[in-house]
Amino acid sequence: MEVNLFLAVIIGIAILLFLILKLRIHAFIALLIGSIAVGLIAGLDANQIINTVQKGMGGTLGFVATVVGLGAIFGGVLEASGGAKTIANFMVSKFGLKRAPLAMVISGFLIAIPVFFDVAFIILVPMMYALQRRTGKSLLLYAIPLLAGLAITHAFIPPTPGPIAVADIIGVDLGWVILMGFIAGIPTALIAGLWFGKHISKKIFVAAPEEIEEENHPELPPIAQTLLIIGLPIVLILLNTIIAAGTFGVTNPIILNIIALIGHPFSALIIANLLAWYFFGLRKGFTKEQLLKISTKSLAPAGTIILLTGAGGVFKQVLTDTGAGELLATSLSNAGIPILAFAFISAAIVRIVQGSSTVAMITAAGLVSPLLASTSLNSIELACMVIAIASGASIFSHVNDSGFWLVGQYLGITEKQTFRSWTLMTTILAFVGVITVSIVYILV
């Protein structure tokens, strides 16, 4: 029986990777087929498999679909209003040219909270070009810190889709994940972004392409307003988490109820969306029809992530219902392999093999979640698990990752230079992230 369950998991993952890599089937369908294969090999009958698929999909999407959808609309309105450029312009003006790399890493860190990674990068490319022309230094001095800031937030800090999906599959409050994401993100940004950016810019000189000029967005929103609206949902979610943990000793049921309502990710993001709709939209001259189009367009990439996450929930549920998850947990314990290390390694393997960080996060979360059923990890330890998975899923971006080509194209560098800069940066990011949360995991 044990051998059969192990074979079921191995064959299921092999089928998943074969469908994605060789047959080029979308990861959503591939995850479902892989999950069904695990169920069949493990001995589930047809009705059990169908019930497992429904249970895994429904149980996961009830939370994730709402949060990812609200976050995508929020980011779409911010992008259209020029809010991302507001932050970058403000940071560069305050830090000056000499400390522009620090300004870029902070800008990336903040902007990626509401805006998808690739969109945020493309928006800020003209600013990097302008900095390079003004200073004459390598474009990588500004690009690597910006990319590090974007990648760290994209992987570590909700309400970006990846950590939301992993947190839901594992079963940990988003507030703790946000807190742990910041704790791991700061040293990671300093090392992978600032230190490595300065180092690699001395090795590889890249000039900005002359034919592309910086475009000025008319009537950018004020910086204070922008930061307030971006930060509000995060503050509300964190406040709810801290109050619920009894940190401030609040016992009044009315106050607790109000905080629980406005501090839930659903409500916090609805509030942020309404503020963005008015201040970034109507106050900036957008019509209601234009805002509706922006919102609708922004949901397109969110739909893919939502379905992928649902399929990841199915994979997790199959492992739970077949008993394969419990068997893996027992085997890891007997072999002396820490679950945190397994979380990182499993995400890293899937990431390197098939390229997508989102698929790597969701697959690893599906593998890890059933292992946690027999443990008594607290909220901080579970949040560390989320960041460990996110770190592994960020490692070694190479030719099978669209981000590799996006970065190379916009920076105007060769594949070899992209490996030496972008790929190495993502690898440093992954190891610093997992080392940081490992220290926290051991100490708590």
Name the features:
444 residues; 0% strand; mainly alpha; 79% helix
Walkthrough of the structure:
The chain is mostly helical and 444 residues long. The chain is 79% helix and 0% strand. The chain contains 19 helices and no strands. Helix 1 packs antiparallel against helix 2, helix 3 runs parallel beside helix 12 and helix 10 packs across helix 11. The longest helix has 36 residues. The chain is globular. The protein starts with a helix and ends with a helix. About 1% of the residues have low confidence.
Tell me about the biggest sheet?
none
Q: Tell me the structural class.
A: mainly alpha
Q: What percentage of the residues does DSSP assign to strands (E)?
A: under 5%
Overall spatial form: globular
Mean pLDDT: 91
Number of H/I helices? 19
Poorly predicted runs are 211-215
Subunit arrangement of the protein: single chain
Question: How do the SSEs run, as a string of H and E?
Answer: HHHHHHHHHHHHHHHHHHH
Distance between the termini: 37 Å
Helix content: over 70%
Radius of gyration: 22 Å
Number of strands: 0
